[in-house]
Structures are given as C-alpha cells and as structure tokens.
Design goal:
Number of strands: 2
Largest sheet: 2 strands, antiparallel
Order of helices and strands: EEHH
Helix content: 25-40%
Radius of gyration: 13 Å
Number of helices: 2
Oligomer: single chain
Shape: globular
C-alpha cells in the first residue's frame, strides 16, 4: 500500500503522484518541500530534472 511521504498515512484513492513519491494531496507535497533545506530541495529538483543527465558532457 502506498503511503504519503509527508504524513506517512496510507493513500486510499489516487492521491497526488509526483516523480519523488506519493502524497495525499498537492498540499502535502508542498508541505513536504517546505520541510526540506534549500540545498536538499535543490538537489531533489535537480535529480528529477530531465536535463540533468550525469553521464553526458
């Protein structure tokens, strides 16, 4: 069963699916991002960016 990355509660219906995980709602995704340090958030967003391909130069 999928659990929200913010509140850790089981997600009964569709919820909010993001590349980093599942959340109860978009509001919980935003709250999760607010709990991260700026550096953590930057690394997270960089890791899911389609233009960040670490193998190519």
């Amino acid at each position: 069963m999928k659990k929200c990355m913010y509140c850790n509660q089981p997600i009964e219906d569709k919820g909010y699916n993001h590349k980093i995980g599942y959340f109860c709602s978009e509001e919980h995704f935003e709250k999760y991002c607010d709990t991260l340090l700026k550096e953590e958030l930057a690394l997270l967003m960089h890791s899911i960016c389609p233009c960040s391909d670490d193998g190519e130069e």
